[in-house]
Fold:
Amino acid sequence: MWTRIALVAALSPIAAANFGCARPATGAAMLIEDKVYTVTPASVKVKAGIVTGEITEMKVTERVEKDSGRVDSPAKLTGSLKLKNTSVDQTVRLIGGKIQYIDARGQPIKLEESRTEPAIKFATYGSAERLDPGQDATQLLDVDFPAEALKAKELKEIRLELVYLPSPYKEEAVNFTVSIGGQ
Structure:
């Protein structure tokens, strides 16, 4: 009998802690909303050597808790990048790209330590991974944006650096003599 009393006495504080210290259920969940910042202009023409194009539908979005204003997901720059090979005699293989945010003093704005540098990885275009003369391709942008750049008059410009490999493009024809059925 003493063993039972000792066991109940030993387990009572654990049971009380588990049942008495539980968090009360909250009636309302935190409401998260997208806070969208417009980028002006929303579309810009770009040119890097024999590659030209346009960035369209640019905007910056961060997710915040509606009541507290606490940032749930840090800011991202999104848009669409359309590039075209304007060369008449070179193929272009798009390797990658990088975006830098430049402040009013001409200095790059650094991202927070926990975030990754804004890099663009190009999707494969067909089996050859290339843009022949006159061809174009579209790539969606979705890269980290520095919180510092959201402050008024802090961001002056965005720099897009493209990396590509040009190579000679040749189209040649070969004629050969044939006959059908012994004619």
